[in-house]
Amino acid sequence: MKIGVFICHCGSNIAATVDVLKVVESAKSMPEVVYAVNSMYTCSEPGQQAIEEAIKERGLTGVVVASCTPRMHEPTFRRTVERAGLNRYMFEMANIREHVSWVGKDKAANTAKAVDLVRMAVEKLRLDKVLIPKFIPATRKVLVIGGGVAGIQAALDCAEGGMDVVMVESEPSIGGKMSKLDKTFPTVDCSSCVLGPRMVDVAQNERIELHAYSEIASISGYVGNFDVTIRKKATYVDWDKCTGCGLCTEKCPSKKSYDRFNEGMGETTAINIPFPQAIPKKATITAASCRLLSGGKCGVCAKICTSQAVDYTQKDREITVKVGAVVAATGYDLMDWTVYGEYGAGRYPDVITSLQYERLLSASGPTGGHIRRPSDGREPKEVVFIQCVGSRDPSVGRPYCSGFCCMYTAKQAILTKDHIPDSRSYVFYMDIRSPGKGYDEFTRRAQEEYKAQYIRGRVSTVYPKGDKLVVKGVDTLVGEQVELEADLVVLAVGGEASQNAPKLAEKLRISYDGYGFFMEGHPKLKPVETNTAGVYLAGSCQGLKDIPSSVAQGSAAAAKVLGLLSKDKLESDPQTAGVDVKRCVGCRKCINVCPFGAIREVDMRGQIKAEVIEAVCQGCGLCTATCPQGAVQLSHFTDNQVLAEVEALCQS
Amino acid sequence: MPELTENTKELRIVGFLCNWCSYGGADTAGVGRFIQPTDLRIIRLPCSGRVNPLFIIKALMSGADGVLVSGCHPRDCHYAEGNFYARRRLEVFKHLLPVLGIDRRRFEYTWVSASEGPRWQKVVTDFTAQIHALGPAKFFADAPELDFLKAGEGVMQP
Ligand SMILES: Cc1cc2nc3c(=O)[nH]c(=O)nc-3n(C[C@H](O)[C@H](O)[C@H](O)COP(=O)(O)OP(=O)(O)OC[C@H]3O[C@@H](n4cnc5c(N)ncnc54)[C@H](O)[C@@H]3O)c2cc1C
Ligand code: SF4
Ligand code: SF4
Asked: Which of A42, A96, A151, B44 has CB atoms 3.0–4.6 Å from A329's, for a disulfide?
C-alpha cells in the first residue's frame, strides 16, 4: 500500500497546541507511508485538491487525514479520495482537534498524542479493504410523529413535494400548543386563523394519512425501510361514522371531566370534541369519566347519535405501515410548576400558568374570551406576571432559557390591556430576551404603549389576603422590596421536553440530552438531522423555540426527507459484517445476538452456516464480539484492525 | 476534580469508545474546550458491544497502564441493545482480571452520552488520576503468584 498522510493546522485550532510539522516528520517513518504533508485547512477547496493531486501524482492507494472529528468531515474526505479514483473506504481519520488540541494544554504532550493517533490510523488503514456500496430499494413515504405546528409544516411540505405522509398525533386533535394560543407575537394575529387553515389542509390533503389519538408502538428497520406499528387508542367512537355534530357532547350527563385542551380551566363532558376547529373533528370518550365505561348505567350518547358511531366495546388497535423516513416533531410540555410552592402554584386558584391564561384570553376558551378569575369569575384589574418560572433556575434542574416566555408575557400584557382597558399589568423579569425580527420593538410596545410595568427582580412569595394575592418581590434596579396586591398571578412556566420523549427516542434509536430534548446530528451543520440515518427533527422537541423557528425547522426537515427519498434506491453503507464460512461452526450465537435479525442460517452441503443479510446489517459489530470462532467480522472494524490499533499504541 | 501536576509522566491509557454517544461526548468536550489530561488515546468503535474483552487484555498485556470503555447510557444504544451485552461482558470480565494478575482498577467501563462534554472531562480526569495513583503497570513477569486465589480476593465466587 502507498499511504499519504495529511496533517491539518485548522488555522490555529490545531497548530496552536500541536507541533504539526513534527507530526508530519513522524508520519514519514510510519509503515507504508510514502508521503506526509501539512495543510492549512485540509477541508477547504485547495486542501482537498492537494489530496486529489497527491493521490494522482504519487499513486497513493490509501489516505489518512489528521484533523477534526470524523463525525464531521469523514464523508467529505471520502468523497475527496473518490474523486481522485480511490475507493472511498481506503481512508482513515485521526481526530487531533476535538480529542487533542482543544483539550490539552501541553504542546509536547499534545504532539506526542497526535503522532500516536496518526500511527493508529495508519495501522488501521493498512488493513482496510475496498468496499462497494449496494443499492437498496426505499419506500417513498414519511412518518411524521406529532401534529403541532412543526409537524404540520413538515407534513404539508412533504406532501407538496409529492411524498406520501403518515402523521401520528397522540392527542385527539392535531394543532399542538399553538392551537391553544389566543394571539401570537410579534404580530398579535389570531393563532387559530393562522393555524386553522393549515390543519384543514392536513385533513384534506390526499397524500396525508392522519392517525390522531394514536402512538408509536414500535419501529424497526432502517433508512428507506422502516416498519412502524401504530397503536390507535380506543376512542369508543367509530370515527368513520362520526360526523362531529357534537350532539352527544350536549347530552352527556358526566360533565366534570378534566378539560385537557383548556388546561383544566374548565370542565368538559366524558364524550367530547376538544375544540371547535379540531382536526379530525371527531368525538372521543374519556373512559375514566364515562358513567357506562366506569361500570355504571348510561348509554345516552349511543342513543342520541344519529350515525350510530358510539361503540363502547372498542379496543386499542394496532396497524403497521412501511415508511422510508421519519420526522419527530413531538414538541414540548410545560414543566411541573407546582414545585414552586412559594408562588402557591397549584394551590391558589388565581395563580395560573401562562398557557391557562391563553385559554382565558381565547374566544374559544371556557370563558368565551372574557378574562375571569378562576376563583370567583371576577374580572381582574391588577395582573402580575412572573417570568422565568422553571427557566434559568438550576435549583429546579432547569438552567436553560425557554426562549419564548419573555415574548409571550409581553404579548399577554398587551392583550390584558386590550381586554380590560382599566387594568394594570406588572411583569417581574430577570432579563428581557427578545432577539428576533421585531421582537425587541414588541416588548417595548408592551411597556411604552400598553403601560405594562416591568420590574427587574424575582418574586419571593405569593400569598392570599382577602380576595387578593400579595406578591412580594424585589426590584433590583432600585434596590427595594416590592409588594403588590394582585387579582390574578400568571406564571410564565418554562418548557421541557415532552413527557415521553426519551421513550420515543429509544424506539427511534436517536440520542437525547440530559433534559430529554432530541439531539441533532451536529449543532451547526445538521440542525434537523439525527445520528440515525433517515430520522429527522422538527420544532421544539429538539430544543425550545417559538413558532417561526418551529415552522422553519418543519420545512427544513421536509427538504431533507424529499432529498433523501428523491431516488427510489438508496446507497447502503457497505461497512457491514460478513461470515468466513470456513471458520463458522454454525453455533448460531451471532444469529441470537444480532439486534436487527440481520444474520440468517443457511444450509451449506449439510452444514449450518451463518450468513449476513447486508442490507439489514447496521454495522454494530455485536456479532463480531460474540463469535467464538472469529468467523463473523465487521468490515473496517475487524478484530485484526482493532488489535493493530492497540498494538500501534502500546508498542510506541 | 483531582488535578494532575504538569510534570507527571504520562502513562499509557487506551479508550474504546462507541461512535454514537461517547465518541460524540468526547467531541463535545473538545468543542467546549474542557481541558483533560493527555494520557488517554481513543479507539473509535461503532458500539460498546463491539468491544471484545480480548482487546482489553491485549492492551494491558502489551503495556497499557489502564483501559477505559465508554458507551451509550443503558437504553440509549444506537443499536438498541449493544451496551447491554457490553455491560454483562465487561462486568464479568472485570472480575476475571485478578486471575491474570491484573489490578481490577486498571480497567473501567462507563456511559457518556454525546451531549455530556463535562461528564467526559470528569471521566477522563478521574480515570487518569486513578491510573496515576496505581502507577505504571508492572511487567507480567513481576505479577504476583496466584495465591490470592486461595483468599478468594477479587475473584467471583462460583
Ligand atoms: C403560553 C405560551 C404562549 C406562547 N405564545 C407564542 C406566540 O405568541 N408566538 C410564538 O411564536 N410562540 C409562542 N409560544 C411557543 C409555541 O407554543 C411553540 O413554539 C410551538 O407550539 C412549537 O411547536 P411544536 O410543533 O414544536 O410543538 P407542540 O406545539 O408542542 O406540538 C407537538 C405535538 O406533538 C404531539 N406529541 C407529543 N408527543 C407525541 C408522541 N409521542 N406521539 C405522537 N404525538 C406526540 C403533541 O400532542 C402535540 O400535538 C408560546 C408558548 C407558550 C407556553
Ligand atoms: S457466532 Fe460465529 S461460528 Fe457461530 S454461527 Fe455465527 S459466525 Fe458461525
Ligand atoms: S454487525 Fe453483526 S450484530 Fe451488528 S447488525 Fe450487522 S450482523 Fe447484526
From this structure: A151
